[in-house]
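Marked as duplicate of an earlier ticket. Keeping the data here for the record.
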Amino acid sequence: MPISFEDIGRAAERIRHIARRAPVLTSRLFDERAGVHAFFKCENLQRGGAFKIRGAANFAYSIPHDDARHGLVACSSGNHAQAVAIAAHALGVPATIVMPEDAPRIKLQATRDYGAKIVMFNRQRDDRDAIARGIAGETGAAFVPPYDHEWIMAGQGTVALEFLSENAPDLDALMTPIGGGGLMAGCSIAVKALRPAVRLFGVEPADANDTWLSLRAGERVSIPPPTTAADGLRAPTPGALTFPVIQRNVESILLVTEDEIREAVRFLLTRMKILVEPSGAVCAAAALFNKLPPDIQRVGIVLTGGNVDLDYLAGLA
């Protein structure tokens, strides 16, 4: 494994002053509809509106000071962008974020509001990593990858570390969305160390099924840039570091449609009164539409983010 459970524990201590301890909520109505007893880890209420602050802060605070003084640079459709901007502000250094032209406007504006400089790219034509690494090379800024790094995985793993110590000690399963795989990789290592009997399920949009395909092929598979509304899950291939962890620890990947994602966002907003973005709602969608094995009774669901474009919300009416 690229990281240990001890790495996750150290990350939790390192980021405790900047990352909030997101609450765990339940819903009788959701349970009745889904046929499971669900526990929601509400990272949509996290600082920056998403779990990403955990990995970004752990990375930023792990960099030697001399390496960080020229700033941080990252590429992201929005949540990692905001997280890196927040971490840079905490360090007192500049942040430059490479963002796609089709990024949700609310995420673009929030990233600017946190003080970051934004460089736009075309998702269909440009290599975002190459652009970001080029900026890092020119400026001396530290490149903060969105998922495929040990410090990122350890930071994201603190979600499960908190989850299993709170109100849901007897889970049958834990679900997280899968984009590049950093969250699931980190969480799965924490779960296997603390409660090895808990089963792990990743969730992807059907149009962004690179990890689903990769697990079936036994190797990393690349897909064309997905068009799903779940913009945080549009990574075209699993991470080189994250994929072997997912191969080892995750039972299966569940796929959800765009209509199922929309219904989950609508349900969470209208019935539970919590705002969750499409990327963050895919696990709720998998539960609502009975994608889990029938013997799962108590499931932990990570609601990863709450940064939703108003246009998307208007389309739910």
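See parent ticket for discussion. Residues 5-51+150-314 form a domain with the Rossmann fold fold (CATH 3.40.50.1100).
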